[in-house]
Amino acid sequence: KNVFFLMLAVMGTTLLHAQIQTPAPSPAAKIEQKVGLVDVSVEYSRPSKKGRVIFGDVVPYNEVWRTGANAATKVTFGDDVVFGGAEVKKGSYALMTKPGEKTWSVMLYPHNSTSFGSYLESDVQPITFTVESAKMPAGVDVETFMIGFDNLSNHGGTLFLLWEKTWVGIDIKVGTDKAVEASIAKVMGGPSANDYFAAAGYYYTEKKDMKQALEWINTSIAKGNEKYWVLRTKSLIQAELGDKKGAIETATKSLDMAKKDDDGAYIKMNE
User: Fold this and answer.
1) Which segments in the chain show pLDDT lower than 70?
2) Is 96 helix (H, G, I), strand (E, B) or coil?
3) Exposed, middle or buried: residue 185 (CB in 10 Å: 0-12, 13-18, 19+)?
């Protein structure tokens, strides 16, 4: 009997915690797009028209809208961009809009909550700009709200909002040319100072060709990487090669630099 009642109790507890799953009225969506070399993503919910008049009614004119449904719409930029003419730093933002009959105000708040209301109550001033809206061709009615990307090129694109008979486009400009030029310069310039340091450190640790390790670490230093941790490794390579005098001179220099930086670990190692 005790076992029977225990089973009933467990079944009852399980039923209390069970949840019936049904489709969300405004399903969540996430879209990711590479714009030039910058990753851009948008996370939002997609309400449907369902026979209603949307703009000017369900979504009133000249009032802040969460630009979707449920949680605050989140847009993330993988690097700095110019968004709607405004300079926007890398990061995640809550995307708010204030629809108008011909123009929309767009607001970006640093994203720190899924609550739409928390941004409106915040003292944080958003990045704000205005864009024009356009009417869809006669007979065209978009049932479910959508956000997407269009007009993609190496240097930018357009993030668009589309619902009912209204289209709103926000231009995105990215620094592709600057990024590519920097990449070309880095690759064409050969290995960096840190690359030479890493290679030398690996050769020392694995007790490979110490002469090659010394050449690499000297190149690293010549490229402006004369740091006390670099000199410490050089002193070890010199000692491994039997150059004790040179090793002591290098370690002494490393020690002086470590003392100036008050780095106890490197002071002790050099001593």
Assistant:
1) 1-18
2) strand
3) exposed
